[in-house]
Design a protein that fits this description.
With about 160 residues, the protein is an alpha+beta fold. It has helices at about 65-80, 140-150, and strands at about 5-10, 15-20, 25-30, 35-40, 50-55, 80-90, 95-105, 110-125, 125-135, 155. The longest helix is centred in the middle third of the chain and has 15 residues, at about 65-80.
Length: about 160
Amino acid sequence: MTAGRGVTQYEHPSAAFMLSLPEQWERIEDIEGVALVAVEPPRGPWFRANVVVTIGQIEPGAPVTDWQDETLELLRQTLQEFVLIDVADGELAGAPARRTLAHHTIEDEEAVNAVVIEQWAVVAGGLGFTLTASVAALEYADYADLFYRVAAGFRPDPEFVP
């Protein structure tokens, strides 16, 4: 498990955001509409904890809550056995944000994995930034503090234009 190791400040080379990430996690940038995928090192056949950042255009002036209500409905429709655990409005990087905690399953050829997702969404400069951290359900307690540190270090650039 890599939840307890050090984190480092990561700056995306083109999407103008920063966040804290575990030093040893693999990083893949700018693939298929996703700004960043960071994944813990392999450790056997288990689900690998990960952090994903997506950026999308949102309607000018739309509050984060409206945008995230739509996103929540999309999660319900697309994730297998989706269960909403908690939704909380707050602040991230000095802007209104929404945190969502949920559970779903992922099937592969070897197993059905129970997964917890902790997602933060914030609007900056007319863009919606979504930070999603995922981990095997039974490991969430081990990763919750790390995920909090990742989110606390998230800084979108409100001047960024895709």
